[in-house]
Write a structure and sequence with these properties.
The chain has about 160 residues and is mainly alpha-helical. It is about 55% helix and about 5% strand. The chain starts with 8 loop residues before the first helix and ends with a helix.
């Protein structure tokens, strides 16, 4: 004769598979609220191409503005190599994340808890160092656009 009711949950739970390990080391354990948006913003922007971000949003406007400024700094679109384009995209992402975390730090009443700094202050410091390294690779000095002779442009040469 078949059983009419479902077995008790305790009988089912003992034979169930164990929980699988977490896939991403960047995820916080369930039940712990995020203390700031830096980790979440980093995780999201790492997987998103800049072309897919809505240019009308605050993040989209900031990314576009930073990218355009850096392209102008290196001498214009004609002077940007594919490798430099990747670096410029990463600098824009890192600058937005650093700015967001910096604003969070400034809103805190006390950046010190007990005798130690808050962890987010240290993370902001690391983000700033990484941003400075990326900016140094792009180049900190403004480069002039190459100027062609007016006679060559008009075909008089």
């Amino acid at each position: 004769m078949k059983p009419v009711a479902n077995p008790l949950p305790s009988a089912v739970a003992s034979g169930s598979r164990p929980k699988r390990p977490r896939h991403s080391p960047y995820r916080t354990p369930p039940g712990r609220p995020a203390t700031h948006g830096g980790a979440v913003l980093t995780r999201v922007l790492r997987t998103v191409k800049l072309d897919t971000i809505d240019k009308r949003s605050q993040v989209g406007c900031a990314l576009r503005r930073i990218r355009e400024d850096l392209i102008a700094q290196v001498g214009g679109v004609d002077q940007v190599t594919p490798a430099l384009s990747i670096l410029i995209d990463q600098v824009a992402i890192k600058a937005v994340i650093t700015q967001a975390v910096g604003e969070y730090v400034l809103k805190q009443e006390q950046p010190v808890k007990g005798d130690a700094l808050l962890g987010v202050v240290m993370q902001h410091d690391v983000l700033q160092k990484t941003l400075a390294t990326l900016l140094a690779q792009v180049g900190l000095e403004r480069r002039a656009k190459p100027v062609t002779d007016i006679r060559r442009q008009l075909g008089m040469d």
